[in-house]
Amino acid sequence: MLQIADRALPATTITVLGQLQALVDAGVDYPARVALAKKHWDGKTGSVAKATAFQSIRTTLDKMCVGPRRCAYCEDSLADEIEHILPKDLFPHSVFRWSNYLFACGPCNGPKSNRYGVVTGDTVSEFIRDRGAAILPPPDGIAGCIDPRSEDPTQYLELDLGGTTPDGDVLEGTFNYLPAYDLAAADLARADFTINVLNLNREVMRLARESAFTGFRARLREYVSEKNAGAGEQRLASLKNGVLGSSHLTVFSEMRRQRQILPDIAALLEQASEAMDWLLVRT
Ligand SMILES: [Zn+2]
Questions:
Q1: Lowest CB count within 10 Å: 179, 233, 249, 263, which one?
Q2: Domain extent listing, the chain
Q3: What's the rounded Cα separation, in Å, for the pair 83 and 71?
Q4: Ligand 1 centroid vs 199 CA: distance in angstroms?
Q5: E strands of the chain, at which residues?
Q6: From the CA of 73, how far away is ligand 1's center (Å)?
């Protein structure tokens, strides 16, 4: 997971979002605002103005995707659902807030749904609203899930790519997400919570990231080999775009970050040091 670069919405879309949010905020109390959030979200394409606004939101979210319209969380599947980072059923005051949106896939968005945790001391407590219980807001505090719109997930998470230890042992990577090294306890709890809620280490993703690693290494080899053979700027740009147009760009980001323990990757990046600066996120 990588931090997404922000983009501005058209002014007319911001106006429509503001109007919808005001309708929700006008609810007399929290349960009323929860009900209004659902009503207006379900009716968000009920007029030409609203449908146009939401079409522009989808277009803008598409441009913000990491990789070829890939889900912001798993980077594997087609992103086609507007995901509320803070769940809309729990945070009616953020249901029409632009910075609360990103493009995700169904398999990530569905299970996350209303799962929400809040940092409590050194842990993350999950807030569960039981069916039939009073509709109360979640407690104040820092959200358990890392927000790729406003935070850099690579500060919290790293991928286990394996590598060579200082003693020369070669370890196989699991391609699982792990909490980054040396995190403070509360950040460690957020990293664990995020991996768990988004099910980032489901077997199919682990295998996909392993395959992406092999693919990126092959692309880098090709780039270095053609560069050394004197390929022109246009050809090298096309090879670079092949990397940037791939899924699982976090794998490439981690290959760069962990190159000291990946000798073959370090050797390639030494010969193509410009690849260290390639922007992985569209701006
Ligand atoms: Zn996904």
A1: 233
A2: 11-127, 153-277
A3: 10
A4: 9
A5: 81-84, 101-104, 116-120, 123-127, 157-159, 162-164, 170-172, 177-179
A6: 5
Round to whole Å and give the CA distance between 64 and 149. Answer: 10
pTM, rounded to two decimals: 0.94
Residues 262-273 have a mean pLDDT of 97
Task: Return the structure tokens found at 8.
Answer: 């501005």
| pLDDT digits 0-9 by tens, 42-97 | 999 999 999 999 999 999 999 999 888 899 999 999 998 999 999 999 999 999 99
What percent of the chain shows pLDDT beyond 90?
89
**Tokens read off for 249:** 């760009």
Structure tokens at 274: 């410009």
Residues whose CB falls within 8 Å of the CB of residue 75, separated by 6 or more in sequence, listed in order = 1, 2, 66, 67, 247, 248, 249, 250
pLDDT at position 282 is: 81
| 84 close to 108: Cβ distance less than 8 angstroms | no
163 Rama sector, left if φ>0, alpha if ψ -120 to 50, beta otherwise: left
**What are 9's two structure tokens?**
């919405």
3-class SS of residue 143: strand
Please give the distance, rounded to the nearest whole angstrom, from the Cα atom of residue 200 to the centre of ligand 1. 9
Work out the number of other CB atoms within 10 angstroms of the CB of residue 88.
Answer: 22
Beta-carbon neighbours within 5 Å of ion ligand 1: 71, 73-74, 77, 105, 108
